[in-house]
Amino acid sequence: MSQNSNLFLSIGKPVKDEYGRVMGKVASLALTPSGKFDAVFIEQSDGKFTKHPTEHLKFDGADVTFISKTKSQATLLCDQIPLIWRKNQALKDLVEKKKISPELYQELHNNFEGALNQLKNDAQALSQEVTNEIARCDEEIKMLNYAVVHLELEHEIGKVDDQNYKSAFTMLQENLRRVNVEKTSMELTKNKLSNILLGDSQKTPEQQTSKDSKTPDHQAPELPEPPVVVYVKEIGKAGI
Questions:
Q1: Residue 82 in domain
Q2: HEC secondary structure over the chain
Q3: Which among 39, 100, 183, 218 is placed 20 to 30 Å from 60, CA to CA?
Q4: How many separate domains does the chain show?
Q5: Is the same domain home to 62 and 74?
Q6: Enclosing domain of residue 55
Q7: Has residue 239 been placed in a domain?
């Protein structure tokens, strides 16, 4: 979260997710006794109130963006797992160089192994959550495409006038764009978690750099924005 002294300016302002959807608006801010911003109370569009830790929110002046908990956790795991793995390897080097005793090595090694196994379990559970989110995106894309088809049919037979058609069509296309971007983002997150669990990211920085320079396509690419469905009508037929 970006900390600054003007977070109170966000009260009453809309909260959007990373893809531009409005989640609700800021109702209040919670502070610790020392004056540190701790949480944000959000009034959702259905009138319900939720409380979110400030680390899951990004503040830019009065603009508030909700950062996906799933992506935040994935980023944390993708940082922690390789770090602990490298420390464990460094510990092995130290005992081989007789810089630490075998007894101390074994104790610390067991601690690192325990932490590493727990983080891997967390990554596997999170990967399944991401898979579920991707499936949800697929279902939403399917539903939106059906909505577009039905809108086209009703407009074609004259049940929906041009003005309402344009408004609804724009809304559906915007939602299609957002959910496609979300799906792509989740797929990249799943790939990162998979690489961690497979051990691809547990190389030393030098090894990883060398590997990446030889196989650049191994890196998760920055995918282009998915195409948005656009329907083109004959001029003069629908007046669009």
A1: yes
A2: CCCCCCHHHHCCCEEEECCCCEEEEEEEEEECCCCCEEEEEEEECCCCEEEEEHHHEEEECCEEEECCHHHHHHHHHHHHHHHHHHHHHHHHHHHHCCCCCHHHHHHHHHHHHHHHHHHHHHHHHHHHHHHHHHHHHHHHHHHHHHHHHHHHHHHHCCCCCHHHHHHHHHHHHHHHHHHHHHHHHHHHHHHHHHHHHHCCCCCCHHHHHHHHHHCHHHCCCCCCCCCCCCCCCCCCCCCC
A3: 183
A4: 2
A5: no
A6: 7-67
A7: no
